[in-house]
TrEMBL record:
Transcription regulation keyword on record: no
Residues in 4Fe-4S ferredoxin-type domain copies: 330-399
InterPro entries: 4Fe4S_Fe-S-bd, 4Fe4S_Fe_S_CS, FTHF_cligase-like_sf, Helical_ferredxn, LUD_dom, LutB/LldF, NagB/RpiA_transferase-like
Basic and acidic residues bias locations: 495-512
Pfam family, one: LUD_dom
Domain LUD residues, every copy: 85-314
Keywords: 4Fe-4S, Electron transport, Iron, Iron-sulfur, Metal-binding, Repeat, Transport
Region (Disordered): 475-512
Name of protein: Lactate utilization protein
Length: 512
């Protein structure tokens, strides 16, 4: 048995796959903000899912208890991770499956390639694979890796298929083609599907039928399928995939060889834990009470389904994240995507801006935790947030994303200060933040500061908005106007009101 090391490497290993791209968030986001069509698509899609989620969540009076239970199970799993993984391996192997361990993306890709070659070509004599939508295989860049070696990997989830045929990248965990509308999808199908009806319209049913006909041929000829896993049960060595289209069920039952790539944090102690997660996950992700297809398999069953069953247990930075006591709860993530559907930054910048398989609020913490905040491409990610807290409220396993963002910002600042040759003098930003912190920590100081600010003049002179701030405030007005402050602060208005409760304060109602 291979054991999992819990020591954090002093120098982070490279070759993580698609976790981080070299372009930093602010640059990418600035470009994406110019894509008005994408912003419209995103707003429409995220608001639709968000409303559905709120409706089904409000039906459960014990929703908060379920969140607590989900969080507790995940904490337990992380605390006992080495033991649970060893138990999972023992059970999976005892039931006819084979367990492989991969330290990083390169190792995982190599293992999968070897298994595909060992399985041999499909019924048409070609070496290829069909795939269930999987974040872990996207993370390691498996499709690109296989393609470079002449092995096509066919995505069978509709949205993943759209992204793949469009030579694009996913921009959302759950809805990878969220940035595309129906007309754009029809155009992709017309361009990329060899036998598609040339009169195909953008009617969703007709688009789904076209994809179905295209995929059916792949399902029936494939010898090897590749999946991820939503859960791995240590107690029994069971793997589970939840999905909506039935393509996952086809992949995990039809081919002769099934290879699953699972992040090591997906292990759960007991089968009964699924009772909690099968309520939390569909409601938080698709806004459904139950997901349409839940496939569970335990090793290989003679005469039923794939006879050659493998699981690749993937680290790829997870033990590094586990060693961060402030950030390790990011590994509790069940990839529901609720946090990105409520995030004002994601809604405007879109998923590609995060430069990672993991976009949105969870991506802003997970990518730096997996690959290191000191990596150049990760430094700006913890700042890609207004810290409004909507992600924390929406998260079914209560990951305190804002708290981890602040922790990572602190690590980034410390890393910059301790870099050889770093300037010792405080920056303009440091001075402003120190001043603000001093003033805001005490009501009397804050009142004094407000009295000194020419709020009345600012409000009167700017026509209701401020279009350009000077100095370090310039970034705030780079792409938007700021409402001018009211002529009097709340504190000043309140003091007047207390003095004369019957007199209406003319400043009241100005601040919007
Ligand atoms: S962080 Fe929470 S809300 Fe976001 S994807 Fe993960 S589980 Fe869902």
């Amino acid at each position: 048995m291979t054991t999992v090391s819990l020591g954090m490497p002093a120098v982070p290993p490279r070759g993580f796959g698609n976790i981080s791209e070299l372009e930093p968030f602010p640059k990418y986001a600035e470009r994406e903000l110019g894509n008005a069509q994408q912003r419209r698509n995103l707003t429409h899609a995220t608001h639709t899912i968000r409303d559905k989620r709120l409706k089904v969540v409000s039906e459960l009076p014990d929703w908060e208890d379920l969140r607590d239970a989900g969080s507790a199970i995940k904490s337990e799993a992380m605390d006992r991770l080495p033991k649970l993984l060893a138990q999972f391996e023992e059970q999976f192997t005892a039931r006819g499956g084979t367990v492989h361990w991969a330290r990083d993306a390169a190792e995982a890709n190599r293992i999968v390639e070897e298994l595909i070659r060992a399985a041999g070509p499909n019924k048409d004599g070609e070496l290829d694979v069909v795939k269930v939508k999987s974040m872990a295989t996207q993370e390691i860049g498996l499709n690109e890796y296989l393609e470079e070696r002449g092995i096509p990997a066919y995505e069978t989830d509709l949205a993943e298929l759209i992204v793949q045929l469009g030579h694009d990248k996913p921009s959302h965990i759950l809805v990878p083609a969220i940035h595309k509308n129906r007309t754009e999808i029809r155009d992709i199908f017309l361009r990329e599907m060899p036998d598609v009806d040339p009169d195909l319209t953008d009617d969703p049913r007709r688009l789904a039928m076209a994809a179905r006909a295209h995929l059916r041929r792949k399902f029936l000829s494939a010898r090897v399928a590749i999946s991820g896993a939503n859960f791995g049960i240590a107690e029994t060595g069971t793997l589970g995939v939840v999905e909506s289209e039935g393509n996952g069920r086809m992949c995990v039952t039809l081919p002769e060889t099934l290879i699953t790539v699972m992040g090591i944090e997906k292990v759960l102690p007991r089968g009964e834990d699924l009772g909690v997660f099968m309520q939390l996950l569909p409601r938080s992700s698709t806004g459904e009470r139950m997901n349409p297809y839940t496939s569970l398999w335990t090793g290989a069953t003679p005469g039923d389904g794939p006879q050659d069953v493998h699981v690749v247990l993937l680290d790829n930075g997870r033990t590094r994240a586990l060693a961060d006591r402030h950030g390790r709860s990011a590994l509790h993530c069940i990839r529901c995507s609720a946090c990105m559907n409520v995030c004002p930054v994601y809604e405007r910048a879109g998923g590609h801006a995060y430069g990672s398989t993991y976009p949105g609020p969870i991506g802003a913490i997970l990518s730096p935790l997996l690959t290191g905040i000191e990596a150049e491409e990760n430094k700006s990610l913890p700042y890609a947030s207004s810290l409004c807290g909507a992600c924390f409220d929406a998260c079914p396993v209560k990951i305190n994303i804002p708290e981890i963002l602040v922790h990572l910002r602190g690590e980034d600042v410390e890393a910059r200060r301790s870099r050889p040759g770093a300037r010792r003098l405080p920056s303009q930003f440091d001075l402003a933040m120190t001043g603000a912190s001093w003033a805001m920590a005490d009501g009397a100081r804050m009142g004094l500061l407000e009295r000194g600010l020419p709020l009345g003049k600012i409000a009167a002179g700017r026509d209701g908005v401020i279009s350009k701030l000077p100095g370090i405030g310039a970034g705030w007005t780079q792409s938007r106007d700021i409402p001018a402050p009211p002529a009097e602060s709340f504190r000043q208005q309140w003091a007047k009101r207390e003095k004369n409760p019957n007199k209406k304060n003319p400043a009241e109602g100005e601040a919007k």
